[in-house]
Amino acid sequence: LSDGPLKGKHILVTSGPTHEPIDPVRYIANRSSGAQGTAIGAALAALGADVTFVTGPADVLPPQGVDVIKVQTAAQMLDAVQSAPAADAAVFAAAVADWRVANAGDSKIKKDGSGLPTLEFAENPDILATVSQMTVGRPKLVVGFAAETDDVIANATAKRLRKGCDWIVANDVSPNTGIMGGKENAVTLISDAGAENWPRMGKEAVATALAKRIAEALA
Ligand code: C5P
């Protein structure tokens, strides 16, 4: 597609929310639009990368020029990530559901007068941590996201160490920032070199800046 600095590199991106079924017609979801992940996929492809783009049911269309794998659940997202070709870098921008419904029904739960249904939950796999801690075939650069409302840098720094990823892109999603669901983002890039505050800018500009940094790191 493009002859940029990421030519010949394979990069895996996860994006969007996941949907966790309650029964065949109902599900649990979150408010991720997929906008930031889609912008990152597009920015990486624009620099010449071969991008595998694993996306949950997002509001926005996937980027052009990437290999799109559509999934619904966190378990399917992990499967898709583990089945993808070996990657030089991986960017985990998806808002993966923390829990799935353990007692999801194969047929529609009926309002039949026998009382209210009770949902039981099971913890979903942590895809970012799983890939970060791979002993064979781990991408050279693993990038996670941290959406926080308090103590953004401290929490994101701890998250980086706990999950074992190389970089965390941290942002403050407090309601007064207008970032969640908005067009702009103000992020801090956390690596072993410390925390670097980026100015507030459009999500496309964040994606372009991040893609350039990834190209430098893989060069
Ligand atoms: O722990 P938390 O959900 O805040 O971590 C956010 C980061 O971890 C994001 O990069 C997200 O894509 C990733 N994640 C994941 N699998 C999960 C939960 C989070 O890949 N089950």
From TrEMBL:
Catalyzes two steps in the biosynthesis of coenzyme A. In the first step cysteine is conjugated to 4'-phosphopantothenate to form 4-phosphopantothenoylcysteine, in the latter compound is decarboxylated to form 4'-phosphopantotheine. Catalyzes two sequential steps in the biosynthesis of coenzyme A. In the first step cysteine is conjugated to 4'-phosphopantothenate to form 4-phosphopantothenoylcysteine. In the second step the latter compound is decarboxylated to form 4'-phosphopantotheine. One of its GO terms (biological process) is pantothenate catabolic process. Residues 11-219 are annotated as: Phosphopantothenate--cysteine ligase. Pathway: Cofactor biosynthesis; coenzyme A biosynthesis; CoA from (R)-pantothenate: step 3/5; Cofactor biosynthesis; coenzyme A biosynthesis; CoA from (R)-pantothenate: step 2/5. GO terms for molecular function: FMN binding; metal ion binding; phosphopantothenate--cysteine ligase activity; phosphopantothenoylcysteine decarboxylase activity. In the N-terminal section; belongs to the HFCD (homo-oligomeric flavin containing Cys decarboxylase) superfamily. In the C-terminal section; belongs to the PPC synthetase family. Binds 1 FMN per subunit. Its EC number is 4.1.1.36, 6.3.2.5. The chain holds residues 179 to 397 of 397 of the full protein. This is Coenzyme A biosynthesis bifunctional protein CoaBC. CTP binds at D98, K108, P125, D126, I127, L128, F145, K159, K163. One of its GO terms (cellular component) is phosphopantothenoylcysteine decarboxylase complex. Keywords: Decarboxylase, Flavoprotein, FMN, Ligase, Lyase, Magnesium, Metal-binding, Multifunctional enzyme. Residues 6-216 form the DNA/pantothenate metabolism flavoprotein C-terminal domain. Its cofactor is Mg(2+); FMN.
